[in-house]
Amino acid sequence: MLVHPQFDPIAFSLGPLSVRWYGLMYLVAFVLFVVLGRLHARRRPELGWDEQGIDDLLMYGVIGVIVGGRLGEVLFFQPGYYLQHPGEILAVWKGGMSFHGGFLGVLVAMWLYGRRHGKGFWQVTDFIAPLVPTGLAAGRLGNFINGELWGRPVETELPWAMIFPWVDALPRHPSQLYQAAGEGLLLFLLLWSYSASPRPLRAVSAMFLVGYGALRFVAEFFRTPDPGIFGTLSLGLSTAQWLCVPMVLAGLLMLAAARTRGTGR
């Protein structure tokens, strides 16, 4: 039986400035985006991306992730709490970022980037799709360090079951680590391999939707559901799981449509 280490959420302090682990995980995510983006551009030079374009993409993506992720958390998952504590809406360093909100924010940011730089929307999203999962993994590690988004109680003995002492004394699934491994590393390996060869336009984006949606849907069975706007919905599924359903369906439809167009870029 394991016990959560109860990390200090502050990694280090510089005078009056405290640097939190959660913020450092976002920094790791952004650095990995740039490094992997440059590697991807070199192995697929026909896609027409250079270092400046990747740096600009990061700037747009950072804004989309932070604004969309926070608004998603506020509107989709904890509207009641933030209505009572509006001053905490901007306190992103404390955690509380919705993937689905961040995903929508990034889509808007990528559309704006494409319009400004003369690139098609799907051209942009196909390029960034393989670069996202490592950032998701870093974010889940940040959740684990923060001791948030803990798992459901285990029903059978598991050697890696973990007690989160501030919650209760029940052994639980370390679901943050499950998600870091699934939606992070496994999805990265899938998309990095898939995008190494020419694919029809929209196919890589579609694969991301299907892969993330399916892996997140499964992970939710091991994670204590977020309250959500509606709590647990029909069929006993969480808000996050129902948000994943249209992602998977849209991805499958996009993948089928992309394959009818033949191999592209």
From TrEMBL:
Give the membrane topology: Multi-pass membrane protein
Q: Which UniProt keywords apply?
A: Cell inner membrane, Cell membrane, Lipoprotein, Membrane, Transferase, Transmembrane, Transmembrane helix
What's the Enzyme Commission number for this chain? 2.5.1.145
Gene Ontology molecular-function annotations: phosphatidylglycerol-prolipoprotein diacylglyceryl transferase activity
The biological process GO terms on file are: lipoprotein biosynthetic process
**Regions that span the bilayer:** 20-37, 57-77, 97-114, 201-219, 239-258
Q: Give its localization.
A: Cell inner membrane
Q: How would you classify this enzyme at the top EC level?
A: transferase
Work out whether the entry's keyword set contains Nucleus.
no
Pathway this chain belongs to: Protein modification; lipoprotein biosynthesis (diacylglyceryl transfer)
Q: Which GO terms describe its cellular component?
A: plasma membrane
Q: Which residues bind a 1,2-diacyl-sn-glycero-3-phospho-(1'-sn-glycerol)?
A: R140
Q: Would the keyword Nucleus be found if you checked this record's keyword annotation?
A: no
Q: Which family does it belong to?
A: Belongs to the Lgt family.
Q: Quote the PANTHER family the UniProt record gives.
A: PHOSPHATIDYLGLYCEROL--PROLIPOPROTEIN DIACYLGLYCERYL TRANSFERASE, PROLIPOPROTEIN DIACYLGLYCERYL TRANSFERASE
What is the recorded function of this protein according to its Swiss-Prot or TrEMBL entry?
Answer: Catalyzes the transfer of the diacylglyceryl group from phosphatidylglycerol to the sulfhydryl group of the N-terminal cysteine of a prolipoprotein, the first step in the formation of mature lipoproteins.
What name goes with this protein?
A: Phosphatidylglycerol--prolipoprotein diacylglyceryl transferase
- Name the species this protein comes from: Thauera aminoaromatica
